[in-house]
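Running log. JK asked me to keep both predictions on one page so they can be read side by side. First protein, sequence followed by its tokens:
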Amino acid sequence: MNPTKPVTVLFTGYAPVHFLCFRPIYEQLVQLSGVEVYLSGGVRTETEPGFTYDGAAMYAPFHIQPERILSVEEIQNRHFDVLFSANKRILAPLENFETRIQIFHGVSFRNRGVRPENLAYNVFFLIGPYMRRKFVEAGLLAEDDPRGVPIGFPKTDPLVTGELDRGELLQRYGFDGKRPILLYAPTGQAYNSLETMGEEVIARLAATGKYDLLIKPHDHPKNEIDWFQKLAPLEDAHTRLVRALDIVPLLYLSDLLITDASSVANEYALLNRPLVFLDVPQLIEQSKAQGAIVDLETWGRRGGLVVEHPEQVEEIVATSLSECDRFSEIRTGIASDLFYNHGHATDAAVSWFKHKFLNSI
């Protein structure tokens, strides 16, 4: 690398969660002398000719300077030293990048990140030992393959570092902390729990009068349903629809997480708090049919109880809160196996970058 030439870095993605996975790294890279960082992609819309990407819509909530945002058209004939991305599809020709880094946007029991399409990247910021094993088992990486770098998941660092303020979060959502706080965060895949039983689950839990409930619809669901409009009648002083893009503060605030097949279940294991899964058999079968490496045996949903029918949810939530240590040892195992560098994944990523591109540690 020419020491007088800046290292040019590009991030691309098509959903806010993709950038949220890169944002901790971005915030450090933009502070480095000799590094130029740009962002591209944007909120994706499918049209008859193909996909369109709205960069302004995607990055505006993060207050990114406009000069750092490049359109997808602009990056087609421009060279960059490094690409970071959290989705499988690279939005510019491969030859535009010397180093292509896949950082992933989570790890769930569906293992959607473990797929041949990701071999277009030549560096993998692996989230944990479990992900490495799955890549090896799938024949996509050798056990000692140097392309697989043990980084972790920078997005979740704040869950461990103590930088989040529960009092400030309670104030933000208008809760006093006297009731247990439940967070409902489903995945966005078709046949997710919000589509199948979620509305009844929310109504039942609200009717108990025992909980403060946060509902976080997925930011890019496969089926384009306006859940904020659809669920608006359920909102009240103790039931809030959350439009915030970053789920990490919500995870930190909540006393129990309700989800289905989302990777947030594993992220929540870092806090070792009660988990409840809403069963999604159609989603699981569809994932298998689409070739996903669905793994319910290693960890799967072992970190909490499973609700098969909505009328079970009140009892299962109450039991999970009263027996909060019941799955504690399993959740500790999940966190250890699924994540490298708890609380320090961003530091690990930036240290790797500096060593490789800036000849420093």
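And the second, directly underneath as requested:
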Amino acid sequence: MKRSHIAIPIASLTLVSNLVFACGAERWPVKTVTDKDKEAIVATSVPATVNQLSQIPAPIDPSIKRDTRYAPTELAVYEITARMTFIKVETDEDYHVVLKDEKGNSMIVESVSPNCAQGSRFENEIKAVRETIDKSVGTLDKPKTVSRMVTVTGVGFFDRIHGQTGVASNGIELHPIIGIIFHDATSHMELRNKVQSRTEKE
């Protein structure tokens, strides 16, 4: 019996290759807090907003420093309360999360895979964050649009702007996320009302 040969479209091969996951490379020690400056990071979180962080002057080419940090921004830990609008798994195993403020300003925060963060100063926190996101968001077999208010704590990081979904104007991120709380609210106003109601009851 003669066997027929089935041609596989190039697009299909590209799709398969895009589904191959592996830890990243560009500024990876900084992204995972295994870099030379990791002990200099001040772990006490600084309250901030998406808008405030987006206005910090960024280095022209962040990728120049692969294993060291841009002070003072990348030596600080920030805490932001905003609306999570989008999440997806990237090929470097990060969870790419987009946060937006009330005026629509957006920025990226990234949950690093524990598999890629061995030896990190925040290894335990990275693992706990990933578990919390998995429990709250569910399976991420494809990009997901969400609307949840969250409080995220993470290390400041400047990424090279290359068309990322939700990227801030200066490329700033919280990378990695080392703490996350999902609130029972879908907007800033709803969250404020819930906080006010709890305060009045107390």
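Observation for JK regarding the second prediction: Helices lie at 10-18, 28-31, 50-54, 123-137, 188-201.
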